[in-house]
Amino acid sequence: MTIYQNMLNAKANAEKRFAMLIDPDKVRLNHIDQIVQRAELAGVDYFFVGGSLIVNNGLDDCLSEIKKRCSIPLILFPGDSYQLSYRADAILFLSLISGRNAELLIGKHVITAPYLKLSPLEVISCGYLLIDGGVPTTVSYMSNTQPIPSDKDDIAICTALAGEMLGMKLMYLDAGSGAVIPVSESMIESVSQATEVPLIVGGGIDSAEKALRNVKAGADIIVVGNAIEKDPGLIQDIADAVHSVTPV
Ligand code: 1GP
């Protein structure tokens, strides 16, 4: 079964998923054992691997080291077209639809499409909506785009709808890594009600309670990076919270 089909099945069954974000720059290869062990024990559903800016050359090694140790799917979450590797299982083919930077809407995609066509990676198109997280984030600076204001649910709805109509298979509401204000439950609820595709939510989620509120509001996949880098104990708590939502 493809990873995307797994996401669709989960959504159809009202099961929620937890994706742990690994920034290859921040993870130390000698800590990978520990991270993988915790993730497997907790029942983490996916690893998202990538970052808005990767300054070291550790992507391939990071993917190989994780892959050696577990079968949790590895999904590239690339900040740029150089963040590609055959060692992952799938790639979020992100189009930054909240912005008006043509390169990130279609330009980089044209360059990477032939590479992806030849690759074994499962390509999953994803409408990426950057939401104001209260602080200027790396993604906002690097993408040279303005985030959607955090209280403008209607803009998020219309943007996600347009992305879905253009054929994107996932929507990602992201307040950016380390956001002070995570995406509001009201925005999550509005977007999830307006669209059919699985909804990913991330950026600034730092507790099991917030993760739980987000899935209850309609998020299908919760992404957490920063908070679990600081406190790996949260991996289990957040996984339990996300998986505690059972079909009605
Ligand atoms: C960022 O959504 C991810 O793109 C995760 O953000 O690192 O703040 O958890 P955090």
Structure characterization notes:
By secondary structure, the protein is an alpha/beta fold. It has ten helices and eight strands. The chain has an eight-stranded parallel beta barrel with strand order 1-2-3-4-5-6-7-8, surrounded by seven helices. The model has no long low-confidence stretch (mean pLDDT 95). The structure holds SN-glycerol-1-phosphate. Residues 21, 174, 176-179, 202-205, 223-227 line the site of SN-glycerol-1-phosphate.
Helix vs. strand class? alpha/beta
Ligands, ions, cofactors: SN-glycerol-1-phosphate
Uncertain residue segments: none
Summarize the helix and strand pattern as letters. Answer: HEHEHEEHEHHEHEHEHH
For the record, the CATH architecture stands as Alpha-Beta Barrel
β-strand amount: 15-25%
Chain-averaged pLDDT:
95
CATH topology: TIM Barrel
**What is the terminal-to-terminal distance?**
25 Å
CATH class: Alpha Beta
**Main β-sheet description:** 8 strands, parallel, barrel
Descriptive keywords:
248 residues, alpha/beta, TIM Barrel, 8-stranded parallel beta barrel, 42% helix, globular, binds SN-glycerol-1-phosphate
Topology:
Blueprint: H1 3-12, E1 17-22, H2 32-42, E2 46-49, H3 59-69, E3 74-76, E4 90-96, H4 102-118, E5 122-130, H5 138-143, H6 153-165, E6 170-174, H7 185-194, E7 199-202, H8 208-217, E8 221-224, H9 226-230, H10 234-243
Helix pairs in contact: 2-10, 6-7, 8-10
The structure holds SN-glycerol-1-phosphate (1GP).
Residues 21, 174, 176-179, 202-205, 223-227 line the site of SN-glycerol-1-phosphate (1GP).
